[in-house]
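Regression check, adenosine-5'-triphosphate case 593:
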Amino acid sequence: MSHLAHLNKYFYKYRWRMIPGVVFVVLSNYFGVLPAQVIRIAFDLVKENISMYRLFQGFERQQMVYEVFGYSLLLFGALVLLLSLIRGLFLFLMRQTIILTSRHIEYDLKNEIYSHYQQLDMAFYRRNNTGDLMNRVTEDVNRVRSYLGPAVMYSINTVVLSVMVIAAMISVNPTLALYALMPIPILSAILLFVNKIINRRSERIQRQLSTLSSFVQETFSGIRVVKTYNREADKRDRFADESNHYRDASLALVKTEAIFFPLILLLIGLSTVITVYVGGLEVAKGTITSGNIAEFIIYVNQLTFPAMALAWVTSLIQRAAASQKRINEFLRTQPEIQTGAQGHFQATGHIQFENVSFTYPDTGIQAVRNVSFEVKPGEVLAIVGKTGSGKSTLANLLMRMYDVHSGTIRIDGQDIRRLPLQAFRSQIGFVPQDVFLFSDTIANNIAFGLDETHQTEVEEAAKRAAVYDNIIGFEHGFETTIGERGITLSGGQKQRVSIARALIKKPPILIFDDCLSAVDTKTEEEILRNLSVVMQGKSTIFIAHRVSTIKNADHILVLDDGAIIEQGSHEALLALRGSYFELHEKQLLEEEV
Ligand SMILES: Nc1ncnc2c1ncn2[C@@H]1O[C@H](COP(=O)(O)OP(=O)(O)OP(=O)(O)O)[C@@H](O)[C@H]1O
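Current build output:
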């Protein structure tokens, strides 16, 4: 429950909507209880008038009594109708305030979680899967909203209505009130119990539903593999299997729900029977009128709602508390990568790694061992090495996706941990190894890193990345949508769009992480030629597998198992006749073949 305290700030924020909401709950209940008293009076009136009517048997006045009686009954009917209308109006206002507030809070909470997600670092995203992140911002917030709206509204409603009805009952006749109320706690206890079963079964359905949808999603994402390996029949059987589980879970829920309502009706019926019986005895004693019995029957029926709401609200609150706990877990996670300062930062591009070592916290793999190098403004540094030798890790460290464990990384002589994080990252144009493009137009994908762009800039960047001709070849050119609902770019085209995205920012530091692996050597040469113009005056780090990509670099590092094993210019490294030489020879042979 204490987890829900996080939401109190929102209740406070929307207090001028919540307070009138509570007032409307009270008023709607007040007008809900009143008709019972009107009906009692009408009932007693009927009884009296019938006696009076009989008394005037054979007199002329009898017709008049009849008319007055009919007229007053009509008035009472109209009064009950009017009270119901007023109650309806307050019910409308109650929903308009409380449920509306819950929607406002839901919106705020979603934004709070989302903007917190944006601040969290890579280590957090490594630890938690996307499905979980999405669930907390959608499903969990949804459950919390049920607490903010319906649960709060029905809780207040339940309390107010119970107090009003019970007070009215006791004021009429305490003995009858006691007897009529007797089955209500039993009713509540049974409802709580049944509700628990319903909850358990709904949870099972939810779980099965998410298994089912993940299964379907994965099958469709991998449909090519499924078809190539002829696994359609197998997938169909597995789907039928999962569907069966889902159906069984749904049937189990329906069964419980089927008992739920008859049970309520049984207990309410029991209360009514007791009311009529005990009420009859009291009428005989002369302590109450028969109108009171009618009034009581209405009260007992009105108490059905709070009894049901109690069980329902309890489960809503329990679920919301569990969801808010999960949300709080993420909200309380603080990013390990914190900004070192506020304000602006403009780099010239002087990069220094001094004895940098790094171990991935989750796996304990030491990816970088005591690495030192320097890139002066305008220089090109290349990094080669076997897969898993730590090349991408160096790029990640330079962008502060992770912080180094020992040693220092400096930009323009300043430790990057002391720089304003966002301003510092904006100085780097990064082309990652695994390209990610958004389901958006090509132009928007290229312009992603900028707040404002002109078409000419987008086209210029596309030309530099040697993808311009491909793009204008598409029917809608730069406005072509890519991704799920659009066209699929080839691996090489994606890489080049990703390069254009980095270039458009015109940053003083460029990092290319093995981003030419999917283009042929001819296109690679074209890109490199273009890049050599872009790279002028910028510090560039080129991570590559192919020696051909990097041979013109000012300095080359050869990495093995996280450490630099050789370094120097292309010629110097060839002269060494070490690992670099071997790699070069091997690749020459491959090209000839
Ligand atoms: N996020 C991560 N969490 C844990 N370990 C990681 C993570 N990323 C990489 N590693 C490990 O760190 C080591 C270095 O990986 P890195 O990606 O830097 O290699 P690389 O030289 O770029 O390889 P490739 O050329 O295949 O891209 C590898 O052993 C890898 O398994």
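Comparison notes: The longest helix spans residues 61-119. The longest strand covers residues 366-375. No diff flagged against the previous build.
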